[in-house]
Design a protein that fits this description.
alpha/beta, DNA polymerase, domain 1, Rossmann fold, 2 domains, 13 helices, 45% helix, elongated
């Protein structure tokens, strides 16, 4: 294994640092594996870390046996993909802060499919989302689209299940590690997708999902997709965060219109006001994305 790749995997397992710190380290230390000979003070001057975070980071840098960790993942069927690898999705690499690495279980080839579209929505999604997905997803599957969502309760779960029912391909993006699946109601679905579809996460498998993880998860859902469909969303919703990421990264954002007095339509109607494409049929999606996929 390339030393810099292995070091990058190691850094992604270290506490006390995040995306920006790894960026700083990769920019200043060439080759990256030279990091192991740096002193605490040298690392502090590069990163500007607080003393607490620096101590935590330095401890993990010199105590984690990353070789054993990688072997352990392999025995559990967990694949690793770093931004240094050729198979890393080009579209995801283009976003402002692409994940340094991804953990994968399932059919990794789905990442290489050209036609990928995200479907997200409220955790409280009702029969309106059911009816719309029953209408949209068979057509999307027939056109060869891979459906991406976040394995959350509600619209995400419905999108994954409807895709599978129609013999389509779907990718689930987790907001935590593989060993702490959330929510509990979707554990069986997650395991099924790890076997027959694809589940990915940027978080190490033993990391428990935390509130701040989900916006990060949303940027990956958006980053992998050339378009994002929002089915239902309240005014303050994680789905709107995904849509905002999409707009910022030049993705096509689609939204379903709904009754003006329905709480779960306020977010999608607001998106339409802001320039998202209104969906009235699958052809609305195809006409916008056709030039990107062909």
């Amino acid at each position: 294994m390339d030393c810099s790749r292995k070091t990058l995997i190691h850094l992604c397992h270290c506490r006390g640092i995040g995306w920006r710190t790894i960026f700083q380290l990769s920019k200043h230390i060439r080759p990256l594996d030279q990091i192991y000979i740096l002193t605490k003070s040298e690392l502090q001057s590069i990163t500007g870390l607080s003393l607490h975070n620096l101590s935590t980071f330095y401890k993990d840098l010199h105590s984690i046996d990353i070789t054993s960790q990688i072997i352990s993942y392999q025995t559990k069927g967990i694949q690793l993909l770093t931004i240094l690898d050729e198979r890393y999705p080009p579209l995801l690499k283009q976003i402002y802060d692409p994940p340094w690495m991804l953990f994968l279980k399932g059919n990794q080839n789905l990442l290489e499919q050209e036609s990928k579209i995200a479907i997200v929505g409220s955790r409280k999604a009702d029969t309106y989302t059911d009816n719309v997905l029953h209408f949209l997803i068979p057509k999307l599957v027939q056109k060869g689209y891979v459906i991406i969502s976040g394995l959350a309760q509600g619209a995400d779960e419905k999108a994954h299940r409807k895709t599978i029912e129609n013999n389509g391909s779907t990718i689930g993006v987790l907001g935590g590690g593989f060993f702490h699946l959330y929510p509990e109601r979707n554990i069986k679905l997650s395991h099924m997708m790890m076997r027959d579809q694809l589940v990915i996460s940027e978080f190490p498998p033993d990391m428990k999902p935390q509130k701040w993880c989900f916006p990060l998860r949303n940027r990956i859902i958006s980053g992998l997709s050339k378009g994002i469909i929002v089915t239902q969303a309240a005014e303050r919703s994680g789905s709107l965060i995904t849509a905002e990421y999409g707009l910022n990264e030049g993705r096509e954002v689609f939204a379903l219109p709904g009754p003006i007095n329905h709480p779960l339509s306020r977010g999608t109607n607001q998106l339409i006001q802001q320039g998202a494409k209104l969906i009235s049929s699958p052809d609305d999606v195809f006409s916008e994305l056709e030039y990107k996929f062909h």
